[in-house]
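Hey Z.,

So I finally got round to the zinc ion thing we talked about over coffee. Here's the setup:
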Amino acid sequence: MNDLKPVSIPEDAPYVNALLLQMIRGVEEVLGENGLKAVLRISGLERYIDNLPENNLEKGVLAREYARLNAAVEEFTGRAGKGMLQRIGRASFRWGVKEQSAVMGLAGIALKALPQRIRKRAVLLGIRKGLMDVVDFGLVDVQDQDGVLVYTDYACVICHTRHSDHPICHLYIGSLGEAMVYATGKDYRDFEIVETHCRAKGDGFCRFEIRDRE
Ligand SMILES: [Zn+2]
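And the result:
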């Protein structure tokens, strides 16, 4: 492991408009316009109905509201929630790459110039940089442990103020999967991604293991 410490995110910490917008775009693509309206209502974010957050780095939302929207997708889609959140994570990553490459930390990476075997790690390091640049309390670590990429978010916002007996950051799994697609040109199903630790169940961080499926 490493010597990074869990981050204590204040209950009412603010969060960045662009990152909320990214999730909303993903929800819209996967659940449609009416689905988006429904989950905005469920999560108490009616103010964004027909009035999307700006695509900027101002802090117009609370971290816990971002988390609440995530929870609302699960409430709205029931047993399909886990898969839906993964799809939303993939869709929002794709949208972010198109519309927010600087925020995503990917703008400066010349992937084609890199050998295939280090592209995945390079993309994860880009995401890390993007998050740590735009989120005040952001703290992410990326390690390659004998070919398993380990991505650890010490300040995960998806599960901020939420509690569960199992890991719940399914949206993150989707986004990391799409990041692997971005890095390699393969299909997201070619990767196995498991959330081994989650702040929602009392761990100090949300930790993901990323493996190539053989
Ligand atoms: Zn988590």
